[in-house]
Amino acid sequence: MNRRIFLFISFVLIFFVHKAVAQQVLTVEEAVELALKNNYQIRMAANDLKVDETAVSPGRAGMLPKITGTLGDQNRVQNLTQVRSDGSKVSQDNAKNNNLNYGAGLDWTIFDGFKMFARYDQLKELEKLGQASLKQAILTTVSDVMITYYDLVQQQQQLSALDTTLMISNQRVEFAHNRFIIGKASKLDVLNAKVDLNTDQTLMQRQLERYANTKIKLNQSLARDTKIDFKVIDEILVDEKLFLPELEKLVQEQNPQLRAQLINKRIAELELKQTVANRYPSIVAGTGYNFGHTKSDLGFSTSSDSHGWNYGIDVSLNIFDGFNQNRNEKIGKIQIENAELAIAEQTQELLSQLGTAYQTYTTNISLIDLEGKNEAIAKENLEITVDKYRIGIITTVEFRTAQLNYINAKVRYYNAVYQAKLSEITLKELAGDLTL
Q1: What is the pTM of this model?
Q2: Closest CA to 435 of 218, 150, 146, 34
């Protein structure tokens, strides 16, 4: 064996074994937990929901009275001339006049055509819409985290496969070199073996680069330091018992996008109810207690004081507004119709996505079994090929073909499992039930 190649392989293996021991093993459950706690999109959606929750109140809907305190202090300096009823005339320059008023008043809308009740219900629906938005943000984030996590798993499996092919290629170089020394192989066989080994080393370096970049991406999704190093589990478990009719039922009951469309329809209905309320009279009751003090340098009285209650009721009714009321009600009905169309469209789109994803899911499940059998066959073929190459009864080309067939079969098997897992995640996300 070439000593430099041996040292390189030994260094790589020792380095990665040491890192594997030192690295934290991050499970998918831990990754999801970190995402739910730290992810920026989830945190912003949660804050938006808090805003919606805070807005749900009778006061926001206009059900409670409004109390206002007032204070007014008006001062004037004027040149005045007064002619009194008896014909006398009085005048004064720079006459001062002061008017001070202060008090508190209460206004309460006691009837507005039930608009306030519709508004209160609308605030509750907006809170539900915020809940649906938060759930969608959670589903999207968890789905992305799981997809990236399992991508790392299958990349880690590919690294293991490439490590195996490096060992085989290194063994091949050793066989070719030994056979060349004893005169049973040409220099060309040794050179071909070394070229293939270098090719495998290059593939390993590229895969390590991709693996490291995907780690950075996952750390970003978890909203933590992108330099944190970790390992992932070595196995992908696929749920092979998903049933299409059950998923379709869950989509219509739990999918947050569809729930949002249903809530939007209810909001449109409540908007129309508030518009219709404008046909009814509005009754506002008011009361207050006021203090007044007036002082004047000229006049029949130089000062006056007052205090006391005031109360009353204001009734207003829209008699004619240029037919805007009719137009607004027609617009409201059209908006409800559009909301119903949006529900139908969303339902059809989701069921279509579900049907396509389920077909992909069943195909990937069947490919797991097929690729597993191919891997077993390729492994047996490689073992036979190595024995034959060792005794010199097959060519280097046949050896390399068997080697690549085995490695490609392993990679295809890992990829089939990964793709099946992606299909499972997609189906559960559409169903609004992305359990681990």
Answers
A1: 0.81
A2: 146
